[in-house]
Amino acid sequence: MQTKILLDENHLPSQWYNIIPDMPGPLAPVINPQTFKPVTPDDLAPIFPMAIIEQEVSSERWIDIPEAVRDIYRLWRPSPLFRAHRLEQALGTPARIYYKYEGVSPAGSHKPNTAIPQAYYNKIAGTKRIATETGAGQWGTSMALACQMFGLECTVYMVKVSFGQKPYRKSMMQLWGAEVLPSPSDRTNAGRAILAKDPNNLGSLGIAISEAVEDAATRADTCYALGSVLNHVCLHQTVIGLEAKEALALVGDYPDVVIGCHGGGSNFAGIAFPFAADKATGKDVRIVAMEPTSCPTLTKGVYAFDFGDTAQMAPIAKMYTLGHDFMPPGIHAGGLRYHGASPLVSQLVNAGVVEARAVPQTACFDAAVAFSRAEGIIPAPESSHAIRGAIDEALRAKEEGKEKTILFCLSGHGHVDMAAYDAYFSGGLEDFEYPEAAITESLKHLPKVAL
Questions:
Q1: Cβ–Cβ < 8 Å for 343, 27
Q2: Of 69, 75, 317, 398, whose CB has the highest number of CB atoms within 10 Å?
Q3: Distance in angstroms (rounded) separating the CA atoms of residues 444 and 42
Q4: Model confidence at 262: pLDDT above 90
């Protein structure tokens, strides 16, 4: 009865999988927020190195992973696939539950899978400094780590509510040499304008993105790095699903359902896209994105063109959105507090390839505690959404008396998120369902794009 399914380093993927050739229909264009015309490589050159821009628009199904990146990946990849025998027993389910564990990376999450290549491509392009944002801190810590490995300076604009809630993630970034600023900050025009309107603003990923993009665009030695949403980020994360497929093949299994938490889309794309490729060729597999009811982008947003940030500096993309000025509550799953979603994930949801479910945070923490007591690993709050989805599927299999294979991505550990668990055990966590009226108001401000 195998518990750990391990691939050796010889099975580390040598290529990333690009889902664009297998998408249901053509992609909508990305729009320049100044000209309202489709973006060109020259439009993106002030903030991204050319290799990243080329990956963003590539129609090649397989893209080689540079050896310098694979050398660093080997510090933790291939990551383990676990069979959750003890959780299955605790639930009394006939389902087989597997989880791909990304908490074994140095930063404790899946985010280094894209931070390392982004730092690499910036280094060879001559970039000296990276400006980026972070919500809960997983991306900021990963980019700080990657910059340290490639000798780049790093400035991180951290959403202010998480800056206060998660001081140890800030310490991790500083340990790896990054400068960390609470966002909104007084460093940028975007931050100062928001603080002038609301000095107590708790921040959002949309605001932090505005600050980081402005920082990068106004300094010749600096580029911008993003930890989710964009095509090249989803591309880099596919090592998760590629390894999971190979590991499952070793034990002769294949999932009936694949589950990931969803904020901007990076972790979800990583586990889901290689299986979406199978679904495109006729494989019978369900793919489910789990998001918080307090930030219900895929389940209550609209599929429309919107700015990627609050200050309307980032490109306009067609995606599920709650509106670029949507202000989410300060839930503990800070990495899921984004108004929009990956355009690739959005198109798959709109086409019915991917299902989306929203769940409240207390139900997710219930699931995280049950998982931890059975499997021993303390999950990050973001990952608890995927666990909730997996447990619900396993309980449904129990009710139906059916065997089922469930795969989910445990995208990171919660070792520096213990304040969230303290709040849960003390009864301090509250569920919040974002009101329809507030969403409707925010959606009034979508840009008018005429194609």
A1: yes
A2: 317
A3: 31
A4: yes
Q: Cα–Cα–Cα angle for 364, 367, 368, nearest 5°?
A: 85
For residue 86, the SS3 value is helix
pLDDT level of residue 334 (50, 70, 90 thresholds)? very low
Q: Domain ranges in the chain?
A: 20-65+110-231, 67-108+239-443
Closest CA to 3 of 439, 377, 414, 342: 377
The CA–CA distances, whole Å, from 97 to 92, 311, 371 equal 12, 42, 11
CA distance 328 to 64: 38
Three-class HEC string of 246-276: HHHHHCCCCCCEEEEECCCCHHHHHHHHHHH
Give pLDDT, residue 419: 86
At residue 312, φ and ψ (nearest 5 deg) are 65, 35
From residue 2, alpha-carbon distances to 84, 247, 327, 378, 397 in Å are 10, 12, 45, 21, 22
Who's near 355: CB < 8 A, 6+ residues apart? 286, 287, 288, 289, 349
Structure-token pair, residue 92: 């009394």
Q: What is the pLDDT of residue 66?
A: 98
Which SS3 state, helix, strand or coil, does residue 35 take? coil
Q: What is the CATH number of domain 67-108+239-443?
A: 3.40.50.1100
In this predicted model, which residue has the larger pLDDT, 334 or 240? 240
Residue recorded with tokens 């980081």: 212
pLDDT at 336: 55
Concatenate the DSSP letters of all residues of 324-360 into one string: TT------S-GGG--S---HHHHHHHHTTSSEEEEE-
Reported CATH class of domain 20-65+110-231: alpha beta
**Token pair for 230:** 């964009």
Burial grade of 427 (CB within 10 A; 0-12, 13-18, 19 or more): exposed
Residue whose C-alpha is closest to residue 180's, from 229, 213, 135: 135
Residue 400 φ then ψ, to 5°: -85, -10
Q: For 72-114, write each residue's pLDDT tens digit.
A: 999 999 999 999 999 999 999 999 999 999 999 999 999 999 9
Q: Do domains 20-65+110-231 and 67-108+239-443 have the same CATH topology?
A: yes
Average pLDDT over residues 119-147: 95
Helix 50-57 crosses helix 112-124 at what angle (to 10 degrees)? Answer: 130
pLDDT at 333 over 50: no
